[in-house]
Amino acid sequence: MNCPYCSHYETKVVDSRPTDEGQAIRRRRECLNCKKRFTTYEKVEEIPIVIVKKDGNRQSFNRNKVINGMIRACEKRPVSMQLIEKTADEIERHLNNSMEKEIPSEYIGELVMNSLKEIDDVAYVRFASVYRHFKDINTFMDELNKLLKERK
């Protein structure tokens, strides 16, 4: 870290402490050349996730859209808001860990559906019916039959 006063490249850390609820570290440094002190902040570099929509448009990942979709699917079901938020956290963590800069929206939809399948069958079928655009009762029944076979 270069000193902002004399541009000397050697400094020592005098004090470190977490800030922003543990999201960053505040470091108090002292220049070994001019002895002046200054503060630096260290935080994890977050690479924004870009979602590639079916029509080719790109937009930033919005965790709230995942949560809202799950809330609609879980409406009047015994699924707590805590579980929905925890699941959204897991999905977001999975996307961040993939290290991909651009992720197809279909992939996120599949992650949500797979998560809902583990949480609540009815919520899963509701989400799948909207996400997969069930055209008629036969496609709906096919999905239900697949779910029943998996459960057996």
Question: Strands, helices and their partners?
Answer:
Elements: E1 11-19, E2 24-31, E3 37-43, E4 50-52, E5 58-60, H1 63-73, H2 81-97, E6 102-104, H3 105-119, H4 121-131, H5 137-151
Parallel strand pairs: 4-6
Antiparallel strand pairs: 1-2, 2-3, 4-5
Walk me through this protein's architecture:
With about 150 residues, this protein is an alpha+beta fold. The protein folds into two domains: about 10-45; about 50-135, no CATH class. About 45% of the residues lie in helices and about 20% in strands. It has helices spanning about 65-75, 80-95, 105-120, 120-130, 135-150, and strands at about 10-20, 25-30, 35-45, 50, 60, 100-105. The strands form two sheets. It has a three-stranded antiparallel beta sheet, with no helix packed on it. It has a three-stranded mixed beta sheet with strand order 5-4-6. β1 (about 10-20) and β2 (about 25-30) form a beta hairpin. α1 crosses α2, α1 (about 65-75) crosses α4 and α4 (about 120-130) runs antiparallel to α5. The longest helix has 17 residues, at about 80-95. It is elongated. The model has no long low-confidence stretch (mean pLDDT about 90).
Oligomer: single chain
Strand order of the largest sheet: 1-2-3
Overall shape: elongated
Structural class, by secondary structure, is alpha+beta
The tally of helices reads 5
Radius of gyration: 24 Å
Terminal CA distance reads 61 Å
Précis, in short:
With 152 residues, the protein is an alpha+beta fold. 45% of the residues lie in helices and 22% in strands. The chain has helices at 63-73, 81-97, 105-119, 121-131, 137-151, and strands at 11-19, 24-31, 37-43, 50-52, 58-60, 102-104.
